[in-house]
Amino acid sequence: MARSNKTKYPILGILSQEDLSGYEIKKRIEERLSFYWNESFGQIYPTLKELRREGLLGSERVAQEGKPDKTVYKITEKGMAILREWLEEPVETERLRSELLLKLSFGNHTSTETIKRHVDDFRESLKKKLKLMEIFERNLREVLEDHPDHPYQLVTVLFGKKTYQAWIDWCEEALALLGNS
Amino acid sequence: MARSNKTKYPILGILSQEDLSGYEIKKRIEERLSFYWNESFGQIYPTLKELRREGLLGSERVAQEGKPDKTVYKITEKGMAILREWLEEPVETERLRSELLLKLSFGNHTSTETIKRHVDDFRESLKKKLKLMEIFERNLREVLEDHPDHPYQLVTVLFGKKTYQAWIDWCEEALALLGNS
DNA sequence: GAGCCCATGTAATCAGTTACATGATTAC
DNA sequence: GTAATCATGTAACTGATTACATGGGCTC
């Protein structure tokens, strides 16, 4: 895509919290970041090797019982420094990209029903996502009662909530506007 | 990226409204779609040739006074059929990707001030975008009074408004949460 | 003559997904 | 035995941006 390769940052970030293998890093990203960030194995494994070569990670072969051996990576002081450096830098904003809006904007070439169906499908998918966010929120608020220091995870979940709720509201608005046209 | 190539659809869509050259198509996309869709020349010109080869577009060389000649493309009946077909198909939802949220989620490794600065920068950029949307909205509502059929453009602008407003609200919420931590 | 807009295109580069390959272990 | 999970990796493909090249005409 010729946008800069950011794969190393989620990896460094995840490894700043615990030592993990590539396979486990993938799982953590899916569990914790997947609603706003994703990485595939095809990116993770080569990046891990590179980061190790650059001295941002150390690695250790670990034997497991009942499972294959794994290579566990550990972030180095140099790796932490790079992570902190990146955290300081201005955020590169990525552009929105929405096939739904693209279809909507050429909606005059199909039936209103078709367009309304697309909007409705979108709304249903959002409702599910919103429910997930609400579950995350409840869990995080419980944790936060004991550890009021790290509200960061909660803040990202609130972003999801706000976004999905706004989009649901927009769906209602859009359906109303298209209904009597 | 291995996500399917959609470049042809904005091109067909734009050409369903007026006959244009590649250069003009780029301008139209920037003017009308850029807040949720973008295409570069590197995609547009090769795609135009391909669409012409497939018979979805016709082309004509047009001389201009005071400007270089241009190749104006015109959508064919076959092209319109492909556009309508795509409009019927279910929307492929693309994933959110946010470097801001990524930085936030590892925010415990830097100062609260740094994170708040990122959020604040984001909020300022959103305010500008929101103002733009409001201008678009006013213009479109004026047009809509005379032509109450095609509310589609307006609906996409309302999406922008809703999204940006929600994100601004989230910024306030986030700053408050981070403020007393 | 410098710099900008119009106009079209290609090449280089890279991001990122998907498919494929391999192999261990566990559970049915 | 076969499917599922754990674990690691490579190769193929392609989407998409950016840079580069070219050239006409306009404005200062």
From TrEMBL, chains A, B:
Which residue spans traverse the membrane? none
Transcription regulator PadR N-terminal domain: from which residue to which, for each copy? 11-84
Domain Transcription regulator PadR C-terminal, first and last residues per copy: 96-178
Instruction: Name the InterPro entries for this protein.
Output: Tscrpt_reg_PadR_C, Tscrpt_reg_PadR_N, WH-like_DNA-bd_sf, WH_DNA-bd_sf
Protein name per Swiss-Prot or TrEMBL: PadR family transcriptional regulator
In its UniProt entry, the species of origin is given as Mesotoga infera
- Top-level taxonomy: Bacteria, Thermotogati, Thermotogota, Thermotogae, Kosmotogales
